[in-house]
Amino acid sequence: MTTARPPADVARSGDYAGPAAGGGRAARRRAAQEERRRFRRKRQGGHHGRRGAQTAPRAASGALGAPGSRVEARRRARAAKEHRLVLTSRVVGELFITLGAVMLLFVAYQLWWTNVLAHKAAAGAAHRLEKQWQDGGQGERAAGAFEPGQGFAIIYIPKLDVKAPIAEGIDKHKVLDKGMIGHYSGEQETAMPWAKTGNFALAGHRNTHGEPFRYINKLKPGDPIIVETAKAYYTYEMTGLLPQTPPSNVGVIEPVPDGSGFTKPGRYITLTTCTPEFTSTYRMAVWGKMIDERPRGKGKPDALVG
What we know:
The radius of gyration is 54 Å and the shape is rod-shaped. It has a domain at 116-304: Sortase, Chain: A, CATH 2.40.260.10. The protein has an 8-stranded mixed β-barrel. By secondary structure, it is of the alpha+beta class. It has helices at residues 8-13, 24-134, and strands spanning 151-157, 162-168, 181-183, 198-203, 224-228, 232-245, 267-275, 282-295. The longest helix has 111 residues, at 24-134. Mean pLDDT is 84; it is low at 6-22 and 55-65. It has 2 helices and 8 strands. The chain crosses the membrane at residues 91-113. One of its GO terms (molecular function) is hydrolase activity. InterPro entries: Sortase, Sortase_Class_E, Sortase_dom-sf, Sortase_E. Residues 1-76 are annotated as: Disordered. The active site is at residues 205, 274.
């Protein structure tokens, strides 16, 4: 008698319950078909379970990825902030470098280039003045007769190797900044060298713009100061120095200068400039008295020869 066997995969699963108790071949066939359907359903259920198990770690990993995303976002925000700080510091640094370069250029202009321009302007003014004298033009005039800024004399300080034109007035832009020496005029008018008595008072820059009076503090009693005009050479001898005085002290340019040691009218010269160096806080004054008047026709004085 032939016994119906279940399919091999059904037999291995252990789910086969055996043939039906009765009903013949058709019943057994239906029972086998039913067993196979039941087995398929179980297998399909197992696949769904495995898919769910596979998707679970993905969901878990997604849930675990959220904190990592926040950390990454904070890292990116911190990097962007640091980039902005670096960019800002770079811009500020470049601005400081540019400002420093501008300041260096300004210092170079003040301390060097203004001297170049002033020396050139003063040399030109002195040359024009000498040519006028050679041509017989411009004689000696009374104080105040020259126009503001007009040159009328040349000063020499041999010890300091100074030669500079003297112009009327002490205007900074018209006279002093051009490397010239200014003669006190207007409300502070002082005598001319050819006057019989009086104080020929002058002002000049100590620093920048030609700085003709930079080293007048190095003059010693007896050092010559010569003023050349259209008619004569006037030689003065340095007698004293006032190292520092307020700008308001106009007594230093009086006909008989205060503090000079002179006690009576005479033919004097006063040189004034700013002090300390590179400031205009105070004034320095150097005094001298005339010791010689020499007509130009007789040639240069001994202090200018050799």
